[in-house]
Amino acid sequence: MEFAVVLPIYLIALFTVIEGGRLVYSQTALYFAVQEATRFAIVREGKVSDSEIRDFTAGRLVGLRGDLAVVTVESPINSTVNTSEYTVNIRYSFTPIFPYIGHETLTLTASSRGFIAFPPVLPQSGTATS
Questions:
Q1: Distance CA 64, CA 67 (A)
Q2: How far apart are CA 80 and CA 83, in angstroms?
Q3: From CA 99, how far away is CA 106, in angstroms rounded?
Q4: Residue 79's Cα: distance from chain center in Å?
Q5: What is the DSSP letter of 102?
Q6: Do 69 and 41 touch, CB atoms closer than 8 A?
Q7: Where is the TadE-like domain (predicted)?
Q8: Angle between the N-to-C axes of helices 50-59 and 2-43, in degrees from 0 to 180, rounded to the nearest 10
Q9: pLDDT over 60 (residue 128)
């Protein structure tokens, strides 16, 4: 009798912990992927396209399905102050294994920004300035 009462409560608690762990892992993996993609873009400033950054981000989604992720890249260049900023955003459709949570899918998001300032262009030494 007690077993029949306690078992469902125990199983619900167990599956809730498992699902919560998957959710936290997924969010952490998203943050890792966008941070790595931002570093990738900053190091290769001007030599990498937005599609290459998106592919790199999808490749960094360890343990997650890349087809459920939507990656956007913004890379405006501010020529007045000679700077560039990369922003990598990701949206991921997380599907719980256990349907008792009440949602079919949850949308997880992560974002990372990287900033690079180019060195100023100085006149060549030995040239006269007027």
A1: 9
A2: 8
A3: 12
A4: 27
A5: S
A6: no
A7: 2-39
A8: 150
A9: no
Tens digit of each residue's pLDDT (9 = 90 or more) over 18-76: 989 999 999 999 999 999 999 998 888 778 888 999 999 999 998 999 889 999 998 87
Q: Residues 61, 29: contact at Cβ < 8 Å? A: yes
Tally: H helices and E strands in the chain: 2, 4
Tokens of 99: 């349907």
Q: Quick one: tokens of 103?
A: 């949602």
Return d(Cα 130, Cα 34) in angstroms, integer: 48
Q: Which two tokens stand for residue 10?
A: 């125990």
- Angstrom distance (rounded) from CA 113 to CA 73: 10
Give the whole-angstrom CA distance, residue 93 versus residue 109.
Answer: 9
For the chain, domain boundaries: 2-117
Which among 56, 50, 52 is positioned nearest to 73, based on CA atoms? 50
Can you name the residues that pair with 88 across neighbouring β-strands? 73, 112
